[in-house]
Amino acid sequence: MGNSFVRYAWPWLFGLLAAQAPAQSQHFTPRTVAGTVFVDQNGNGRREAAEAGVAGVLVSNGVEIVPTDTQGRYRLSTRPGRLVFVVKPRGYAPVRPEGWYYQPTTASRQTADFALRLAVEKNAHQVVLLGDIQAGSQDDLYHFNHLVTEELYDDPYAFALTLGDITFDELGVYPKTKASLAALGKPVYAVFGNHDQNYEVREAAYADSTYQRYFGPSYYALQYGRTHFIVLNDVACLGQKKYEGRVSSEQLTFLTNYLQHSDPSSCTCWPCTFPWPK
Known about the structure:
The chain has 278 residues and is α/β, with parallel strands linked by helices. The protein has a single domain (4-272), classed as Immunoglobulins (Immunoglobulin-like), CATH 2.60.40. The protein has four helices and 18 strands. The protein has helices spanning 138-152, 174-182, 209-215, 249-259, and strands at 4-7, 32-39, 58-60, 65-67, 73-77, 84-86, 92-94, 101-102, 109-111, 114-118, 127-130, 159-162, 188-189, 220-224, 227-231, 235-239, 242-245, 267-272. Helix 1 links the parallel strand 11 (127-130) and strand 12 (159-162). The longest helix is centred in the middle third of the chain and has 15 residues, at 138-152. GO terms for molecular function: hydrolase activity. Residues 46-116 form the Calcineurin-like phosphoesterase N-terminal domain.
């Protein structure tokens, strides 16, 4: 279905953000994840003694958001079905495409460091928006590679953003689709769409589980230049291939917490699958 790239002033949201975080599942035991956000000087993805932590970087579990301390350290509890991720700060970029998020395990205490590199970012920049790729076969990817990837390869844009429906209900093509997007040669971020659901999960709340394995959290935020991109998952999966367009209470709490750390005068974009009311 369609997609949306919405830009609104923040005051419009505060009436909407009065939701509380949902209670933890009675079958879920929260774990602790701690680590350091650091500048990876040699680009190997591992923190070494001489590599300093970065203070004030936001890290989230999908609801709570904590800034790193003066040494770049953070600590969070895990939440059911959610990844732990860093909000890409202005002037930095992940060293590796998957290096900004972490899939928690069942271990009681876990360590997840996030490796960043310094990056030059212009306040005025271009973003490539890819709407409804809907790859369902190798043939679809062949056409995408030749009609899109080759055309964009040398373009001077900052990053690409898919606007939902990376696949057409065929999650088996995720690995090859991810490889096709990587061939763009620029950072690629994604939006969860209704055709990206895993229909085989027992609980609808985990319908984004396969998507998250390949593309990261289904909602998150990143900063580029003076712009905040707050990516939302407004596909409410109801089971039996049914869905409706709305944002979960978890996301509303995440939004509330994020805005408390942000400058209201900044430019803010809200990429999502379904249009929001104006």
